[in-house]
Structures are given as C-alpha cells and as structure tokens.
Design a protein that fits this description.
The protein is an alpha/beta fold. The protein contains 13 helices and 8 strands. Helix 1 crosses helix 7 and helix 3 packs across helix 4.
Length: 353
Amino acid sequence: MKNLTFTILLALFLAQGCAPASPPEAAAEERGPTLASYFDNTGRDDALNAGVKMIPISTPSGEFRVWAKRTGNNPTVKVLLLHGGPGATHEYFEIFDSYFPGEGIEYYYYDQLGSAYSSQPEDKSLWNTARFVEEVEQVRQALGLNKDNFYLLGHSWGGILGIEYALKYQEHLKGLIISNMMSSIPAYVKYAEEVLGPGLPEDVLKEIKSLEAAGEYTSPRYLELVETHYYPKHVLRKPLAEWPEPVIRSLGHLNYDIYLMMQGPSEFGVVGDATLKDWDRTEGLGQIKVPTLTIGAEYDTMDPKYMEMMAGQLANGRYHYCPNGAHWAMYDDADNYFRGVIQFIREVDEGRF
C-alpha cells in the first residue's frame, strides 16, 4: 500500500530534477491501434517482446486487455505476480529476474487493468476488489494455469487481491504467497497510528498530522517530512536517491486516480472515502486451505507480528520473517526474502510442505 503513494512519486522525481514518466505510448487501449502490434508476441520475436501476451478482459464496462509476460518454462511451477498500488505496475518486480530463473521457476509479470502497460478505462466503477478478482481469474484461464502448477504471489495491495482470489477460487491454486500485507485495513491503520507514527520524532509527527488535517498531502513540506523521516525507514531502507531504478520506474507509471480512490492520500492509514478503508478478511483466513506463505518485515509499514499471526490462522500457513526488510523487503532484505519464497515453492512442488 504505502510503497506507492503519489507523494513519494513527486519526491523521487523532484529530487532528481525531472518530471514523472508517462506510461508507454501504446499502453492503453484507447491510445491507439499500436497496442497489440507493440506488445503482442504474434507480430515480433525480439527480446523486448519475448513472452508478452495481451489478454482480453471482460468487464461490466466492456472489453479491455491487460499485459502479461512469461519468463521461464516449468510445467509444475508457474508464479503469477500481483503488484501493489492499486494502480502501480509490474516493473518493481524485476528483481525477481535475479532469483527465479536460476531456480527454474516460471513466472509472469502482469499489469492489472488501469496500470501502465494495460488498458486504462476511465469508468471508476471498475476499481473494486471483486472486479479485480474476476480479472485475475480471466488472466489465469488465458495463461493456462491450474491447481497442478499455479502459485499466486501478491505484494502489498496485491496481497489483498491474492487473499480475495483464494477465498473465491482456491480450487485453482497450488500455493499462495501474501507478501507485506496484513489481512485487515483497520488493524493496519491502528498499527500506523499507535506504532509507526509515535516512532517518529514528536515534533515531526505533530507537523505531519497538522498538514494531513489541512489536506496538504502534496505540499513541499509534507513531502520533505515523509521522505526524510518515513520512507527510508519503513518503505525501502535506502536514501531516496539510491532507490532501485525499477522501483522509480514503477512509481513513475502509477495511476494515481485508482490509488486515490481505493487507498487514499494519507501516509498513516486509509482515510476518507477510500474503498479499502473497512476491508478485513482476518476471520476468513481459515477458509483458505491451500499452502500459504505470509511474509513480514521488521521495519515494514505492515505489522510483522500480525503477519505471523495470519500464518497461524491459515489452514496450511507458514510465516517468513525479514529482519532487515521494510515494505519492499524483496529489495532491502533480498537474499533472505527470496530464500523463504523459493523454499516454500520447492516444498509445495515436491509435496513436502
């Protein structure tokens, strides 16, 4: 959730003296007829386009297409990656290229509807969890994934989507990975208010709260405070100037309209009319029977103890802890993060979980 705010997007690009990047010219369906020819694997076989597929998606508002790309080939291990946001892109998952290929894991990048490489309809009624779940199911069918090979890894908002998908369609899953996402937004808000906020210097927290009360979420002073005191501690534990290029690129392609509607503008919770404000599936975790890994990190915006509790509530759960990680633990505690993910996949695949 918090890794993809508009404020950090502005901070990153203002610090570098450049404007946020525009989505790829051919990314959205309504931006012209070059979409399929640019991304569709049937017309080209160069390295840029290898493994790319534009998947038709049916919605109450009509037909659209979403972008997906396969890497690797493994008949029993196929991992679909659900990015955060909502409204971010697959791009920050590119670190998986450094770990999955060597383990023989087949995996799929995928931009959800509204994200940069996929169609970007303007109908706001499409931005809800139930509709996104149906989208994931259509993607699964189009990619030929099934209970004998289908692993779903959701990070941040993608973790919400993964939980929701499993509650409705777990018969198609072989394994589920919930990365850096609590199963309750009210519990997350409580953690932000009672732990993360008070962990800041008292004068900093007071000023941040004052600016939020005034609605100054994108003011220069608000940006300065959160980029100095919050992001490098709880989002990705590096100075902003050193954040990885795939992360910056993903932030530059954020669809802020979707993010604002579902997540809201605050750094310390989900507020206002954000549609995810009351989301809570903790009591339903026991209904998920497939092998499931939860990943928590010591410095995360999400409570790592809550993530551990979730693993105990799941019918077949395990917890993996990243002691040096924050919300993007796949970057700041990378070796440990991927060791846990790969071990989980291997044990499930070999029937040892």
